[in-house]
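Each record in this resource describes a single protein on a pair of labelled lines. An example record follows, reproduced without changes.
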Amino acid sequence: MNRVFNNIISLFVVVIVLFLIIPLPVQLLDFLLIINIGLSIMILMITMNISEALEFSIFPSLLLITTLFRLGLNVSSTRMILRDGYAGAVIQNFGNLITGGSIVIGVVIFLIIVLVQLIVITKGAERVAEVAARFTLDAMPGKQMAIDADLSSGLIDEQGARLRREKIQREADFYGAMDGATKIVKGDATLSLLITLINFVGGVLIGMVINGGDFTTVLSQYSIVTIGDGLVSQLPSMMISTATGMIVTRSVSEGSLNMDVIKQFKAQPRAIMTTGVILLFLAAIPNTPRFALIVAGGALLCVGFYVSRRMEQDKAAEAAAEAAAEAPAIEAEAAPSETDYYKDINNVYSLLAVEPVEMEFGYSLIPMVDESHGGKLISRIVIFRRQYAQDMGFVFPSIRLHDASSLGTNQYVIRIRGEEVARGEILVDYYLALEPANPLGEIDGIETIEPAYGIPSRWILPENKEMAEIYGYNVIDPLSVMLTHLSETVKKYAYELLNRAETIQLVENLKRTSPELVEEAVPNIVSYATLEKVLRALLKEGVPIKDLSTIIETLVDALGQGRDIDSATEQVRGALARTITRRFCEDGQLRVVTLDAEVEKRIISSLTRNEQGVYLAMGPDLMQQIVTQLAEQLKKFNELSQTPIILVSQVIRGYFSKMITQFYPSVYVLSFNEITSNVQIQALGNITLDAPARSDRKAVGT
């Protein structure tokens, strides 16, 4: 029984196809026609009560099934009309209802209904579905960027990002299916008109030629059943077409259609009252329907006045609640003057403290930080700290947030250990729209540069947000702009925030799970100073230090072999190959720029050792050539979502990375032994030497 129930839709489709062949009894046809009308009404009601299209994702398939159902009933009713001149009580009653005793009136009304369905509703729904499908597909890259930005800033985790990406893919599939499904609706409307014409002409010919009936009687009989049959088909088809147009416009809705209409009309009481005044003014003009105008105008005035009073009462209640929440507390004792405070020398020493991370705000940005005014920056920083700790294995210290009168009202400054490292400016009442490579249209706004990634952008008004997304812009709220800038800055300077105290804390945390390892290695073999330098070097190049046990075990082996800190760090990176591969590889592929064998030989020959250790001494011509070629190769990464990566041998990786970082801080240098064997490496370019560089023997320390 369960198996039959699970396949009931498949069985239903098979039965519908059989309707095209097997004649139906009149009573069964009446029942199925009523079911068809009821099903269409149900679908229309569902589309009016959903807030987004994916809540009714089966609609494209359901549209095909209901269309096939209607066509099957049309064929069955046509068989009865041509054979008996009668197709049941439902069709007969609908025909009598629309004709009203006059065949001419019935035909005219029926043609009007058909033309409205074919030209207005069906054509409009088809166009809306086509545009929605195109805009949804074009907006996918921008939405993907928004997900990546939220993920990097800690607003969502990996699971949330995966769910949002799946939703975007489902939206694209749905609107693509709807674009094709509307062609079915258009064909259904056209075919219904042709079937009606066949019923009428064929019925009249059969009634007169075969049955020998009177022309007037035959015309009256077949006209009524033909119009009734057409109406029974067109009404469900019209409701399905209307539902099609509604469901593809649900993307800009915040709730159901009923809720949106009531909410948005209630928000405009002046427009309602103005309309009422205009209707009353029209009632004063001679030869106008005064009674209807006065009743309608008066009703609109009353409704608008009532809605306006309710809005004022709601605002007053909100203001009273806010005032009660902000009621001043009992005044405390007056604080001592600044001069008296600093007479105590211990208070002067408090001025010498340097905050690890500090963020200053202009006056206009304070509400975004102040939790008593609904500010959410602090809670989102907490989420970002947790996400960063999970990804990188390091908990960065608390961020001090305070206002600064020296800044502009819309400015903010990020400081690391007391020094400014980043600055930005945001407009609180606007949205930031990141420009795509090929926007579908131009949006009005204030041109600017996105502070975290340097993307050309513009500040737009909230009412332009939906249109900007349709044009392919990635729209971000001001708080997310500021948080993204802060998170990227913290990631960039995280290695500076790792001090001796944080290193000891990480070791103490590891002691809970690996006490034997810590007791053996730290600080007997690996000193805290050495461990701190290695961890800093890893964080500086974006390598997670979460697997601290592997790092310490590898350091024990490396230092036992007499390696220096730089060589030990490279050995640690090799031990973290899976972590590095996961960090930089996407979908099993790694696109890189490589070095020619001759270039690597020249670099190896440039390595020089002195009392401080090994350093890279390279001729200026060779360095200039590498930097110039690299600039051209990095352009190939502009259209890719992957971070620019240079792949070299392990011997030169660390030294080459230090040199390249001076020119391209966002480029990562990896070695072959840091990439797992299951990754497919694709070389986008290769840096080679020319003749002058090969003959160059000058050297300069870097």
About this structure: The CA atoms of residues 253 and 549 lie 51 Å apart. The chain has 29 helices and 15 strands.
